[in-house]
């Protein structure tokens, strides 16, 4: 199926299963990938299959396939969000960065908020760990402090989380 365009719903379904067997995808992301593989201009296709007779467009076929995958439990936006939040957290990203990243896939904002509670004190610890990883030890130098703050802002941590992490980072090395 590498270079060939997909024409039937069963081919689209199989391509979706192939994609999902490698990693999880958001429904929007999966739809984009499948639409890229589907033959959108069917006027030149000589063989008419049963879904064309029903008048379904490529987009509608892909939507049906995704719905079938969701009903079967093969595709889940909730599972995708959970996996991505966990992975980004472990890589040192903050709640604002992760939320922004997930919003680009037009996922349910309520679901995103459920998995990213930015008021959770655990984010403070993640910010402190990121400082330890990047800078090894605190500094009294003003420019270095700004650099540390900027690093955490770019990673998506809030100003409260950054203040807490910087003060905790200092405490760890005073002990």
From TrEMBL:
Record-linked InterPro entries: RecX_HTH_2nd, RecX_HTH_3rd, Regulatory_RecX, WH-like_DNA-bd_sf
One cellular-component annotation, GO: cytoplasm
Annotated localization: Cytoplasm
Source organism, top-level taxon: Bacteria
Gene3D superfamilies: Winged helix-like DNA-binding domain superfamily/Winged helix DNA-binding domain
RecX second three-helical domain residues: 76-114
Sequence ranges assigned to domain RecX third three-helical in this UniProt record: 125-166
GO biological process: regulation of DNA repair
Keyword set includes Translocase: no
Keywords: Cytoplasm
Principal location listed in the UniProt entry: cytoplasm
Similarity remark: Belongs to the RecX family.
Function text: Modulates RecA activity.
Protein name: Regulatory protein RecX
Recorded name of the encoding gene: recX
């Amino acid at each position: 199926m590498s270079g060939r365009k997909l024409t039937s719903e069963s081919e689209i379904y199989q391509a979706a299963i192939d994609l999902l067997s490698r990693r999880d995808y958001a429904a929007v992301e999966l739809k984009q990938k499948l639409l890229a593989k589907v033959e959108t201009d069917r006027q030149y296709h000589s063989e008419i299959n049963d879904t064309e007779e029903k008048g379904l467009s490529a987009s509608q076929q892909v939507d049906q396939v995704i719905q079938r995958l969701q009903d079967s439990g093969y595709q889940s936006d909730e599972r995708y969000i959970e996996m991505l939040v966990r992975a980004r957290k472990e890589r040192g990203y903050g709640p604002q960065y992760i939320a922004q990243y997930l919003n680009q896939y037009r996922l349910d904002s309520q679901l995103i908020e459920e998995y990213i509670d930015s008021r959770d004190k655990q984010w403070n610890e993640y910010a402190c760990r990121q400082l330890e990883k990047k800078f090894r030890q605190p500094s009294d130098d003003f420019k270095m402090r700004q650099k540390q703050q900027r690093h955490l802002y770019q990673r998506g941590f809030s100003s409260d989380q950054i203040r807490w992490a910087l003060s905790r980072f200092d405490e760890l090395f005073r002990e």
